[in-house]
Structure formats: structure tokens, C-alpha cells
User: Fold these one by one.
Assistant:
Number 1:
Amino acid sequence: MTDNTQEMPMAQIAPIGIFDSGIGGLSVLRHIHQDLPLEDLLYFADSAYAPYGDRSEAEISARSLAVTGFLLQQGTKALVVACNTATTAAIKAIRSAYPALPVIGIEPGLKPAAAQSRSKIVGVLATKATLQSARLLALQQQIGAASGVHFELQACVGLVDQIEKGELRSPQTALLLRRYIAPLIAQGADTLVLGCTHYPFVRPLIEEIVAELASGPVTIIDTGAAVSRQLVKVLGENNLLHTAARAGKVSAFTTGSQSVLSATFASLLQLHSPVSAVAAIAQPAGIS
């Protein structure tokens, strides 16, 4: 392949920044890497502060702004907030602080879930912070009123921790999932929304538990692919798509364990990407 990057505007050559509280955002990165194979991707796992779902909205917003500032220092041309909790708590503050930066967030797929539900009962699996956010509650009320769908909200306390530890099929993870899914199925939910980017990594286990508990088919909604499609659209509208005939590079930063994130890239994505440890990042001056 010929690399003609020198003929391209610098803004197009710049990398895309993606961040999450930990490894969950890799489920979104997977879609982005498939849809935009020419783009360089920078992934930031704020693992020292995971899970965001156990923190206050003010803490989540402060961390999200700090991570965004760090990724901008690395030359990021667009930002993907690959964390449902950070999107609900901080995306407004990020867009306000950096109005020229294209920012794509992720939210639980309530709209597609409502469209697919036959029983008109949808279960939403998410962190406590996401489910308590004004953004999600407003979305729930709006879609519920328009569609007649009832949303059963289920906080999955402890599930992100299990996934961060790599326990994707352990008895403890299965116990947690069964505890959270069983009441939703019992209440008639025929559609489940994975409202956290960590959860797609335990989707096979979720499907097994649902098959045991449900008497009929249950649809599972994961919005990672939709985020990637929106990113492609926004980059195109802003003339920021990388067009050089070369393979994009994926690299990562973490406030947690370098070796753990490297191993996770290899095991979950089959990527051997360089990972740099970040000891501390500060909120950029002038941002509140």
C-alpha cells in the first residue's frame, strides 16, 4: 500500500480519541476500527477511577474533562465518549468546553428497543449513575410517551468490576447477571438494552441466561455499532476522514495497569497495541 498522508491536510491525518472508565469502550472501538480501518485511534482507559457508575456526576464530569484535555494534547481531531455514564454526566460540559471539537457520545438504545418490543416492556441494564441521570430519565419519558413502551430500569451494581477483572464467564458474574435479568424477564420484558459499554463483553453469558429464563425470544440491543456509524457521518461532514491507503494504528493510554490493558486488547480484540501508563492527568486550566 502507498502511504500518501503527506498530501492530506493535517486535520485529516490526526487521530480519533476514544475514552471510557476502563475496558468497556473497547466494545465501541471494535466497531470503529472495523468501519474506519484507515484511521489512527487513541484509546484512554481511566481504570484508576473505574467504575464511573459509582461516582458523583461532578466527579465524572471532572474526570471526563481531564481525559478530553489529555487526548487533545495528543492531537485528537474528534472524540468518542465510549461510556454511557460519562455521556450522561459530562458530554454537555465537554461540548461547552471544546465547541470546535466533534464529540460523539453513547446512550442506551431506548429508541430502537421501543421499536422492536412486542410486549411493550423493555429492560434497561446500566450503572446506577446512568439510570439516575436527568438525560436518561428525560429520554425514557419522551420515548415512553410516544411509543407506549414501559421501561424497567435495572442497576447492575458490581458487574463492571467483574468485567474489568476479566471474569466474563465466572460463576460470580453469572450470579450477578441472573439476579439482574430474572426480574426483568418475570415482568414481561422481551427486549433488553445493554446500557453500558462493558456489557457487550458478557453478551454470550447474558444470552445463555435469557434462554434459560424466557419462554420466548428476547432481543438484545447494543448501540456500539450506531456510535461508529455516527462517527463516520460526523467526520465526513467535517472533512476529517483519513483517505490515505494505509492501515490505521491503534494505541492506548491507561491510568491503571499497562499489562492488564495490553492483555485485554489481545484477548478481546486480537490487537497487539502499544499501551502507555499515565500517572496522573489534571483538569485543564480555565475549565470548570
Number 2:
Amino acid sequence: MTYESDVSTFTCVEDAPSSDDPRWDDLATLLGPGGLADMFSSPAQPPAEWEPVFTLPGLQFVHEGDAPTAAAAPAGTELVTLSAVDVPDMLGLVATTRPGPFFARTHEMGTYLGLRRGGELVAMAGERLRPPGWTEISAVCTAPAARGQGLAAYLINDLVGRIAARGERSFLHAVEGNRSALELYRRLGFETRASVVFRGFRVPTGA
């Protein structure tokens, strides 16, 4: 099971089969030669010919306490709801900041918010995974020249409020070594729920 490649690289193989299970062939067919399988904490081990791409320890956070009060956008910025017309700007910001997997149609998974300054997209964050009762906040990123101005905090708080208004709770993920992100999330009321492992594998080009 997987998403369309321009939406997400997350994949799932039922019941964590052994590396010789035929379901790996099914997944390879879905992803195509050279496709990326983001296994996200899955203990499943792909066949030996699948190339390991990354293994990163991370943390999962959940928001505790009351939702923040809605506030005006930071001075000099305009809050916008991002859509297909904003994809080039979104991809450009992601390429500069590398917040994690984000593709041309990832924004279709939920509400993505951006802050523009003088027309330039300088920060964004949005909703990704939606298990019942929960919404994941993802793609939190700020252009290097706009960091330290509270833009990411503003967007996260706005999303937490929107999610709470639906009767859901917010959660998010971060690489364990990203200290600035971890400090920000804890300051905004997120608490560590679990350790996770980000794992990615590449389907053989001859598959």
C-alpha cells in the first residue's frame, strides 16, 4: 500500500512480512523501478537488493493543553491558505529548508498555510496524516532570512487551533537531532509521546 508518488512516499506492507515475502514484489510494482519506500518505523525488512536510503531516529509529539487563541499574522506578513497555484513557491521553500518529504501534491492531504512577505513565501506548515481523532502537522519551514521572527510558531499555533476546532488533537514528528525544532515544539505545548525511526529504501531499478 502506498500513496501516489507526487503526494507522499509513505508505504505500508501488511503484517511486516519477511524479506522473501511476495508482497515486496507487489510493493515494487506499485512504486516502480527506483521508487522510494518510506517505511516510517516499520520493523519490516525489504529484500537485500533494495537500497537503504536513510535511517534517522526521531520523536513523535502530541499537543497537550488548551488550543492557542487565534492571533493576527506577524507584522509585515500575510497569512494565506496554500493551493495548487502556490506549488512552485512551496517546492522552492522546501528545497531551501528541507523540512522532510514534500511533493507537488502533498498539500492535497490537508490545509497548508503560508506566510508571505512582499509576495514571497517565507514560511509554511500544514496538515498531513489524519488518523481518526488526530491530525499531523508537517512541512514546518521558514526561509533562512526570516528565521527567529516567530513565523513557524505562529503557523503551528494557528493549525493547532483549527485542528482543535474540529474536535481533534495535533501531533507532529521531528528528527531527534534537530534541537531548534524540538525546543520550539515543546515551547508550544507539545510533549514527547514516542521514539520513532524514519527509514527509507529504494526499489531496485531492475525491479
Number 3:
Amino acid sequence: MVYREDEDLVFLGQMESADLNDLVLCLIHDRDGAERMTGELVKSELYKKHQPDHHQYWQEIAAEIQCFGANTFATMFRSGKGVLYREVLTDVCSRVKVKFNKDASVNDIENELLMKILSDSLKKMSEEELRQLAGTMGLANSETMTPEILLGTFQLAFVAGGFMSYQLALTVANAVANFLFGRGLALAGNITLSRGLAVLAGPIGLILTGIWTAVDIAGPAYRVTIPAVVLVATLRRKWQSQQEKKTETAN
């Protein structure tokens, strides 16, 4: 397993070890909690020496994502190198039927993936749940809220970036973790998800059930790459939010 220089994963090297806990768990454990037989990360000397100080071997973590996203035989011919994160991301989007511009930035493609999950989830929410979500977000006319209006609000939040974008991504990732591992993210322990956003967990779980049924047939690698991509997208938005905060403080 060899890390390929990847501009879309290099930010992981600036994350704290605690931030990477959930991503590492996703990469090394199956849904039932058993260690993945197909993974290489736990065999890494840096992992054995430093875990759980994940920051010390962030490149090995990135390499694991790249290799799970690659065809097994192709990886062998690349001398253990996988594919760049962009290819992993677009493959996941194609698998879960996300419409995206292939020339768009990785950040924008991740937004489309998150929006697809949120959009499908809103369609499964009751009128009461929609009103609760709208009210918690401080939206006017919450009594007459529709999935389309909420979706537009989410889109604006992702375009604007910042903390709200991170919180929405965290909501999706937290639901993924609950679905896969029966518990929420360690990341979510530091940020209390509002009751309004929490109501999305059930509908997102239904969406994930449908996705999982399809990818289980397609192949085991998707059981890693789909949650890994959602987690990477969430970490990227946390990192971006931190960078914006630092800039504001400096000014």
C-alpha cells in the first residue's frame, strides 16, 4: 500500500488525531465490528507503532482510501498504489446515482453527494418533521414548509460553506455511522446536533438501507468507500470552517 500524492486528501495531514478516529474505524472494521480481512492499514508499521495517534500516519490512512477505491488487480499492477480520491468520489456518486459535473471541483461533487442523501431523506419526512426542522433552522413560515424550500436552504448552506455546511455534513455522516456501527460519530460528541437536524437521522437511515442493499450486490469495496467518502467530505468541511475562523481571527 503506497500513498499517491493527492491534493484532495492532503488536508487530512492537518487534522488532529481525534478527528480521524471515525474514518479509521470505517476503514478497519466491518459493519459487525470485526476487523476487515481486505485492509492493509493495520499491517502498516507506522500504524502499529503510533496508533491511535492517527496524525502520525495520515498518509497510510489516505492510501487505504485510494486502494479500496481501486480495482484489486489494477492496484497490484500499480505496485500497491490505488486511485486518486477524485476517482473514488466520482465512482461512489455514480453508484448511488448522484448527478454531477465531472469537471466540477471535488468540494462541489461532495456537495452533490450530500445533497442527494439529504434530498431523498426530505422526501421521506412527515409534515410535522419538516416543520420541526424548519423551525429549528430559524426559517420563516415553518408551518407551510416544503421539502423543496428546505432543500434550497441546504444548497445555499453548502455553497456558502462555514459551520452550517459542516453541521449538515456531520448530520449525514452521523446517520451513516449509526446505520453501520450502531453508534454516532466521535466527532458529533463535540457538537450537539440540534433536534431539528436530528430528525433527519431516521429518513437518512431509510435511504442508506436502500443504498446498502444495492452496493452489497455490487461488491464489498463500496461498503468501505461510500461511508469513507461521506466522512472525508465531513472532515473537509470541518477543516474549511477552521480555516475560515482563523482568517477572521487574524483580520
